[in-house]
Amino acid sequence: MKNKHLISPMDFSKEELNGIFELAEKIISNPKEFSHICDGQILATLFYEPSTRTRFSFEAAMMRLGGKILGFSEPNSTSSAKGETLADTIRMVSIYSDIIAMRHPKEGSAKVASMYSSVPVINAGDGGHQHPTQTLTDLLTIKSQKGTLEGHKIGLCGDLKNGRTVQSLIAAMSRYEGTEFVLISPKELVIPEYIREEVLKRNNISFKEVENIEEVIDELDILYMTRIQKERFFNEEEYLRLKDSYILDNEKMAKAKEDMIVMHPLPRVNEIATEVDDDKRAVYFKQAEYGMYVRMALIVKLLGVM
Ligand code: NCD
């Protein structure tokens, strides 16, 4: 995997993904053993769009491997504000660093960056399109919490139209035997047609689309809640009308299976009541922790340092 880019979760085979998860599990059980493996290496984090978890987890991952970081979270303070093209920024940053993690509001920008980079580029989110490292996080969470990636009925709830985490997760989970999806969203925010046709129908994946969470919560093995993606709305009124479409609370949780897990890529706004945090089935904070370890494993693999 040395020197590969990660633009879409489908860039890696299932075997390569397994290799990343196995390494992440090793790091979790013995972090000290890995604390100098990236000595002398530099990760650049280029964040053209707001982020806390993703950027911090990349930076913490590199620091815990002994490497160093450089980058920005405020593009207005860089030459892109002077009109520098993404291609030129990437050419330059790939001279200064050994690996790049980039988040950008435009779909396809990570792909463009990878074409101009002499070092591996990791897509940390390109607009409403893909978010492959969140998917690695989600898969490791499912594997660790449920014991396997196969045979799960997964409810995805919220903004399925604009949510890049959902689109990446559907593509990735479609490769595992026995996956079924229940897509829960308001009519205005259903999943894009290309996912329905080119991923779900083409691969004969069982799925249904519903508006009401109560109707299906008792069937699910995994419930993946998402935020209504305010920044992707053109119309504020439409956002205000839809923003509280789903609020998961203890009353709804009472109807769910005893071993269903609740996931969320975070940040949460209002879609999971804080009372649910104490439910043992709520794994979203644990999920954020897996995110750091899986990024450590990913960096090690792409740099080829072991
Ligand atoms: C997600 C994202 O940026 O797409 N957050 C994250 O990376 N943890 C989800 C979101 O912003 O809703």
Automatic annotation (TrEMBL):
<feature type="binding site">
    <location>
        <position position="54"/>
    </location>
    <ligand>
        <name>carbamoyl phosphate</name>
    </ligand>
</feature>
<dbReference type="InterPro" id="IPR036901">
    <property type="entry name" value="Asp/Orn_carbamoylTrfase_sf"/>
</dbReference>
<dbReference type="Pfam" id="PF00185">
    <property type="entry name" value="OTCace"/>
</dbReference>
<feature type="binding site">
    <location>
        <position position="53"/>
    </location>
    <ligand>
        <name>carbamoyl phosphate</name>
    </ligand>
</feature>
<feature type="domain" description="Aspartate/ornithine carbamoyltransferase carbamoyl-P binding">
    <location>
        <begin position="4"/>
        <end position="143"/>
    </location>
</feature>
<feature type="binding site">
    <location>
        <position position="134"/>
    </location>
    <ligand>
        <name>carbamoyl phosphate</name>
    </ligand>
</feature>
<feature type="binding site">
    <location>
        <position position="266"/>
    </location>
    <ligand>
        <name>carbamoyl phosphate</name>
    </ligand>
</feature>
<dbReference type="GO" id="GO:0004070">
    <property type="term" value="F:aspartate carbamoyltransferase activity"/>
</dbReference>
<feature type="binding site">
    <location>
        <position position="103"/>
    </location>
    <ligand>
        <name>carbamoyl phosphate</name>
    </ligand>
</feature>
<feature type="binding site">
    <location>
        <position position="82"/>
    </location>
    <ligand>
        <name>L-aspartate</name>
    </ligand>
</feature>
<dbReference type="InterPro" id="IPR006131">
    <property type="entry name" value="Asp_carbamoyltransf_Asp/Orn-bd"/>
</dbReference>
<comment type="pathway">
    <text>Pyrimidine metabolism; UMP biosynthesis via de novo pathway; (S)-dihydroorotate from bicarbonate: step 2/3.</text>
</comment>
<feature type="domain" description="Aspartate/ornithine carbamoyltransferase Asp/Orn-binding">
    <location>
        <begin position="151"/>
        <end position="300"/>
    </location>
</feature>
<dbReference type="InterPro" id="IPR006130">
    <property type="entry name" value="Asp/Orn_carbamoylTrfase"/>
</dbReference>
<comment type="function">
    <text>Catalyzes the condensation of carbamoyl phosphate and aspartate to form carbamoyl aspartate and inorganic phosphate, the committed step in the de novo pyrimidine nucleotide biosynthesis pathway.</text>
</comment>
<keyword id="KW-0665">Pyrimidine biosynthesis</keyword>
<protein>
    <recommendedName>
        <fullName>Aspartate carbamoyltransferase</fullName>
        <ecNumber>2.1.3.2</ecNumber>
    </recommendedName>
</protein>
<feature type="binding site">
    <location>
        <position position="227"/>
    </location>
    <ligand>
        <name>L-aspartate</name>
    </ligand>
</feature>
<feature type="binding site">
    <location>
        <position position="131"/>
    </location>
    <ligand>
        <name>carbamoyl phosphate</name>
    </ligand>
</feature>
<dbReference type="InterPro" id="IPR006132">
    <property type="entry name" value="Asp/Orn_carbamoyltranf_P-bd"/>
</dbReference>
<feature type="binding site">
    <location>
        <position position="267"/>
    </location>
    <ligand>
        <name>carbamoyl phosphate</name>
    </ligand>
</feature>
<comment type="subunit">
    <text>Heterododecamer (2C3:3R2) of six catalytic PyrB chains organized as two trimers (C3), and six regulatory PyrI chains organized as three dimers (R2).</text>
</comment>
<feature type="binding site">
    <location>
        <position position="164"/>
    </location>
    <ligand>
        <name>L-aspartate</name>
    </ligand>
</feature>
<dbReference type="InterPro" id="IPR002082">
    <property type="entry name" value="Asp_carbamoyltransf"/>
</dbReference>
<comment type="similarity">
    <text>Belongs to the aspartate/ornithine carbamoyltransferase superfamily. ATCase family.</text>
</comment>
<dbReference type="Pfam" id="PF02729">
    <property type="entry name" value="OTCace_N"/>
</dbReference>
<keyword id="KW-0808">Transferase</keyword>
